[in-house]
Write a structure and sequence with these properties.
heterodimer, A: about 120 residues, alpha+beta, Alpha-Beta Plaits, two-stranded antiparallel ribbon, 2 helices, B: about 425 residues, mainly alpha, about 70% helix, elongated
């Protein structure tokens, strides 16, 4: 089963410490070598991005500032795993690294299975 | 959470750690079969403890500590006759007594150890079936029950196979090391063969009612990805991964909503998995960069890549495919490859040229029980308007097909040919 992990956290973003970056890098390296991680990436802050939104039947482009946005996506990863239990175990391990290296950080790692077979 | 609820979570945590557990223990004990047993013991320990204590914050570290303790006990019990073992045990004990670094578990680079493990599990000394079972168990961490279910055989059959294979390995006194030089490519071929067997068992599902058993494909893909990261300089490892990724990219399109097979040229290409195609093309590119474009797996991957890159069935580059099959046929003399070449020639040059190749294969002993020969022949005869002969070919092929879905497809084609024969007479 293929899963997407979407990591969100409230603004303003706390940047990862070198220790966390190193730990995440090691985890990613391990997971690539285990043949489980297919893809991953971190995203630039929302302030440098944009939103194209439809509201009240109208399309608009919002190029910032994003004052009303509560949670922003910071990164994602795509894994091929056997089941949801494995997906959860992986997410716990990933978030545990944040708990250790960035004690004040708050955020969510959402685990979502891809639709399809 | 009840004990029954927590079991899948424990198994999942163990599986994530399993490659590191077995490689660490193999390094400690220099004995993969024992390492595998103690890795399983760590799972049993977790199944006993965690329902009472809850899953620890760092399940991986818990499992590793437990497994290493068992290995240490074992080394002690073995009375450490050899001085070397004493040294190892002392070092390990010292290591256990120092404060564990929270990230130490992530530090070990298991690549070389994993490669040794894969080479051992897929040793040519073992039968193919035994290699397949050991690989799934040691490398993928599947249980005996899971392997049995995937291969539609009894638990007892698989556990016997595993026990016998382990005994063979123990009694052989094999050096537990990565082969080098010319032995490496020979041994690698045995490994790749096992991985491809596992993949095809899932992809073609030769027996049973279902067209696909995707779990086996996933396991084979995983080993393939592991191999390309730890044996990164081996072109055929990349070639095989490319072949599997590209084939697996069509999974969603290979059956319709009622589970009926859909042949490649009729598939909805929008359902092909583009992420997987991209990964497959990358792996094929890597195989070529390493000078392996003429390899057995790389050539097959190149053929599938032609399909993956055609936006519609009509845009398929059949002359290129037909050329690649010629190259493959020169590399490996196989009537099955020759049959596939005939299909490509049929598309590139027309059914008459293809039928000439197929007719040369009719008396091949290796194809006597191969239903696809009749299936291809029937198809070509249909295209040439020889419907009666086509019907007979499809009917004979249906008798030979072991997969129920395939049988039904062939019977349907026989009936269509019969109708066409009536209409044209």
């Amino acid at each position: 089963m293929r899963f997407m992990y979407i990591v969100t956290s409230p603004q303003p973003q706390v940047g990862p410490t070198p220790g966390l970056l190193e730990a995440m890098h090691k985890l990613a390296d391990r997971e690539i070598k285990a043949g489980r991680m297919l893809d991953n990436g971190g995203l630039m802050p929302l302030q440098t991005g944009a939103q194209v939104r439809i509201r009240d039947g109208k399309l608009s482009v919002i190029d910032g500032p994003f004052v009303e946005v509560k949670e922003v996506v910071g990164g994602y990863a795509i894994f091929e795993l056997r089941d949801k239990e494995e997906a959860l175990a992986m997410a716990r391990e990933f978030m545990q690294l944040h708990l250790e290296h960035l004690p004040d950080w708050e955020g969510t790692c959402e685990v979502r299975a891809f639709a399809g077979p | 959470m009840t004990a029954a609820d927590i079991h899948p979570a424990i198994l999942a945590a163990w599986r994530i750690e399993q490659p590191r557990l077995i490689t660490s223990l193999s390094r400690m004990l220099r004995d993969v079969t024992l390492a595998e047993e103690l890795t399983q013991d760590a799972l049993v320990a977790a199944l006993e403890h965690w329902p009472l204590t809850g899953i620890p914050e760092k399940p991986g570290a818990w499992l590793m500590a437990t497994a290493k303790r068992r290995a240490l006990d074992h080394l002690r019990r073995a009375r450490m006759l050899a001085r070397k073992h004493q040294m190892v045990a002392l070092e390990l004990e010292a290591e256990q007594q120092t404060m564990p670094d929270p990230d130490a578990a992530l530090d070990d680079d298991i690549g070389d150890e994993m490669l040794r493990l894969i080479f051992t599990a897929c040793h040519p000394l073992l039968s193919r079936e035994a290699r397949v079972a050991l690989a799934l168990r040691m490398i993928c961490g599947l249980t005996t029950e899971e392997i049995a279910r995937a291969f539609l055989v009894s638990d007892a059959t698989i556990s016997q196979r595993v026990v016998r294979a382990k005994r063979t390995l123990s009694e052989s006194g094999l050096a537990y090391e990565t082969p080098s030089g010319s032995e490496l490519s020979e041994r690698l071929a045995a490994v790749l063969e096992v991985v491809y067997l596992i993949f095809n068992e899932g992809y073609i599902a030769a027996r049973g009612e279902h067209w696909l058993r995707p779990q086996l494909c996933q396991e084979a893909l995983r080993i393939g990805r592991v191999l390309t990261s730890i044996a990164a300089h081996e072109p055929e490892a990349h070639g095989l991964l490319a072949l599997m990724e590209l084939n697996a990219s069509r999974t969603a399109a290979r059956t319709d909503t009622s589970g009926e097979p859909v042949l490649l040229l009729n598939q909805n290409r929008a359902l092909w998995d583009q992420l997987q195609i991209r990964r497959g093309m990358q792996a094929l590119g890597r195989a070529r960069e390493l000078g392996g474009s003429g390899g057995f797996y790389a050539l097959q991957a190149a053929i599938i890549a032609c399909h993956a890159q055609a936006r519609t069935a009509g845009e398929t580059d059949w002359p290129l495919i037909s050329g690649l099959y010629s190259e493959l046929s020169d590399l490996v003399r196989s009537p099955v490859i020759e049959l596939n070449r005939a299909v490509a020639v049929g598309m590139a040059e027309g059914p008459a040229a293809a039928l000439a190749i197929v007719n040369r294969l009719v008396d091949e002993p290796a194809l006597k029980a191969y239903h696809l020969l009749g299936s291809v022949r029937g198809d070509l005869l249909c295209k040439l308007g020889r419907y009666d002969e086509a019907r007979a070919a499809f009917e004979a092929a249906a008798e030979l097909a072991a997969n129920k879905r395939e049988q039904e497809l062939l019977r349907r084609r026989a009936a269509e040919a019969a109708d066409a024969a009536t209409a044209s007479s």
